[in-house]
Amino acid sequence: MDAVLDAARAWAAQDPDAETHAELETLIARAAAGEETAVAELHNRFDERLAFGTAGLRGELAAGSNRMNRVLVTQAAAGLAAYLVEKYGGQASVVIGYDGRKNSRVFAEDSAAIFAGAGVRAILLPRLLPTPVLAYAVRHLGASAGVMVTASHNPARDNGYKVYLGGDDHGSQIVPPADAEIAAHIAAVAAAGPITALPRSDAFELADESLVYAYVAATAAVAGALPEGVGLDVVYTAMHGVGWDTASRVFEAAGLPLPLSVAAQQEPDPDFPTVSFPNPEEPGALDLAVRTAREQSAELIIANDPDADRFAVAIPDASADGGWRRLSGNEVGTLLGWAAAEGEAGARHGAHHVPGVLAASIVSSPALRAIAAHFGLDYVDTLTGFKWISRAPGLLFGYEEALGYLVNPETVRDKDGISAAARFLALALRWKAAGRTIADQLEAIGAEIGHYSSGQISLRVTDLSERGRIMDRLRAEPPRVLGTVAVASFDDLATGIPGLPVDNILRIVTADGARVMIRPSGTEPKLKVYLDVRGDSRADAAAKVAALDAALRELLAT
C-alpha cells in the first residue's frame, strides 16, 4: 500500500485544481487509515495511466494518473509540445479548441500556456465551439497540430483530449506511429518530475471571430442551390452542447429554413440535465425533440451531439412509438452517399475527370459499396474512426454508422455534424420539391440497390478484460450456425484478411448473405456487434435483422 500512497501524495502535491486536490487528499487519508474501499480506489486511479492513443485521451474527471484532470492534461500538452518541436522546430504551431463540458476551458487554457512555454506558437479559439470548427481551424490557419478538449457524446462525468495534425496529415486526427511517438514524449514528461517545474507562458494568441465566420461560409456552401418556394418545418436539438450557435449561423448563411430549437437543450450545460446519456443514438435522447415536433407538427427532427461532430435524423412514422422514427446512421449515410454519388455522376465531363471515392468504416453498412458500384465509383473500406476515413485518397464522401459523416473533405478532414445537417436539410428541400418524403427517397434507393437494414448490440461491461475473454472464446470456438442459418465464413481481421485492414474485429457471414462484425469499443467499456442484411423490401430486411439479433444475443450470453 505504501507505493500507491506515495504516488497519490506526489500527485496531490502538484495538483493545481482545488477540487481534485481536496478530493484526493480525503481519499489518501481514508486509505492511510486502512479503509479497504479507499485503498482499492487509489489502486484503480494510480496503478495504470490513462492511455494516449489515436483517440487521444478520454476518461472520467477525477484526480489520478488513470483519470482526466489538470495534471494529466498538462503532461499531455507538454509531451505534445516536445513532439511538435522535435518535428517542426521553431516553426511548430498548435490551435486549441474546447466545448462546454466541465473543465474543458481550463484544460484548453492550461494547454495553451504549456505550448507557449515550450516555444510552440499557440492559438486558442475565441470561445467554446464545436469540434468541426477546431478541425477546420487546423487547415485554415496552417497549424502544425490541433487539440480539441471534448468527450463528445460520453457521459457528463467524462472529458477528453483529441489531437489533429497539419502538414502532410491535412488536419486529420492522429494515426500510428504519431500516437506512440506523442505517448512516449508524454511518458517522459510524467517521469521527469512534477508539472510545477514545466515552463508556462501567457504569450499565446486568441483567435478572433473571423475564423468562425470563415467556417460558417465554407460550411454553408455545401447546401448548394435551393429550390424556390419550398419550406420545411424542422426541429433541432443541440443535446445541451455547443452546436446551436454555429449551426444556426450556417443555416442562415445557406438560406436554409431555420429550425425550431428545443429550448431546454439549446445552451451548453455540462450536467446534461434532460438526458441520461447525451448521445442521439441512445433510447430517449430525442424525447424532448419528438415532443416539440409533435406540438409543432414538424416534418423533420435533426440533432447534433454535444460537440456537434455527429448528426442524427428522425422522421414522422405512424407505425413507430410516438409517431417518429430515428433513422439509423447507416440510413442517413445511404441518403447522403447516394446524393454525393449522384452529384458526382452528373458532374463528370472530359477525359481528365477523376471520379471521387466513397468510403466507410468496415462496420458500416455494405449499402455504400453498392451505391458506389451503381454509379461506377471506387469504394474504400477503412478501419473505424474518421482518422482513417478522412485519409481515403480522392474522398468524395465518407461515413461511419455511429452518426458520423464527412460531406466536405476539402474543408474539414473529420466528421462534421453541422455540414452534414446543412447538406441534409438542402436535400430534404429538394426531395420535397420533387414530391418525395425522406422515407420515399429511402424506398427509391432500396429499389435500385436492395433494401439494406442494420442492427447493433452494445454489451456493456464493468471489467474491460471481459471484452477480451468474449473475443477469445469466439476465436477458439467459432459459431457454425446463427439461429437457423448456417455460418458461411468466420474471419479474424487481427490475423490479416486480403482487402481489409488489420484490426481486433471478428467478421461472420451467414449462408443467406448477412454480415456480423464484432469489436471492442475504442472509447467506451462495451463490446459492439454490428448486424447488416439485405432484403427484398424494408419489412423483409427488418425481419432478417430481428432474427439475427436474437441469435447473436444467445451466442454472446453462452
TrEMBL record:
<dbReference type="Pfam" id="PF02879">
    <property type="entry name" value="PGM_PMM_II"/>
</dbReference>
<feature type="domain" description="Alpha-D-phosphohexomutase alpha/beta/alpha">
    <location>
        <begin position="50"/>
        <end position="188"/>
    </location>
</feature>
<dbReference type="InterPro" id="IPR005844">
    <property type="entry name" value="A-D-PHexomutase_a/b/a-I"/>
</dbReference>
<keyword id="KW-0460">Magnesium</keyword>
<dbReference type="Pfam" id="PF00408">
    <property type="entry name" value="PGM_PMM_IV"/>
</dbReference>
<dbReference type="InterPro" id="IPR016055">
    <property type="entry name" value="A-D-PHexomutase_a/b/a-I/II/III"/>
</dbReference>
<dbReference type="InterPro" id="IPR005841">
    <property type="entry name" value="Alpha-D-phosphohexomutase_SF"/>
</dbReference>
<feature type="domain" description="Alpha-D-phosphohexomutase C-terminal">
    <location>
        <begin position="492"/>
        <end position="541"/>
    </location>
</feature>
<dbReference type="GO" id="GO:0008973">
    <property type="term" value="F:phosphopentomutase activity"/>
</dbReference>
<comment type="similarity">
    <text>Belongs to the phosphohexose mutase family.</text>
</comment>
<dbReference type="InterPro" id="IPR016066">
    <property type="entry name" value="A-D-PHexomutase_CS"/>
</dbReference>
<keyword id="KW-0413">Isomerase</keyword>
<dbReference type="InterPro" id="IPR005843">
    <property type="entry name" value="A-D-PHexomutase_C"/>
</dbReference>
<dbReference type="InterPro" id="IPR036900">
    <property type="entry name" value="A-D-PHexomutase_C_sf"/>
</dbReference>
<dbReference type="GO" id="GO:0006166">
    <property type="term" value="P:purine ribonucleoside salvage"/>
</dbReference>
<dbReference type="GO" id="GO:0005975">
    <property type="term" value="P:carbohydrate metabolic process"/>
</dbReference>
<protein>
    <submittedName>
        <fullName>Phospho-sugar mutase</fullName>
    </submittedName>
</protein>
<dbReference type="InterPro" id="IPR005845">
    <property type="entry name" value="A-D-PHexomutase_a/b/a-II"/>
</dbReference>
<keyword id="KW-0597">Phosphoprotein</keyword>
<dbReference type="GO" id="GO:0000287">
    <property type="term" value="F:magnesium ion binding"/>
</dbReference>
<feature type="domain" description="Alpha-D-phosphohexomutase alpha/beta/alpha">
    <location>
        <begin position="353"/>
        <end position="441"/>
    </location>
</feature>
<dbReference type="Pfam" id="PF02878">
    <property type="entry name" value="PGM_PMM_I"/>
</dbReference>
<feature type="domain" description="Alpha-D-phosphohexomutase alpha/beta/alpha">
    <location>
        <begin position="217"/>
        <end position="314"/>
    </location>
</feature>
<dbReference type="InterPro" id="IPR005846">
    <property type="entry name" value="A-D-PHexomutase_a/b/a-III"/>
</dbReference>
<keyword id="KW-0479">Metal-binding</keyword>
<dbReference type="Pfam" id="PF02880">
    <property type="entry name" value="PGM_PMM_III"/>
</dbReference>
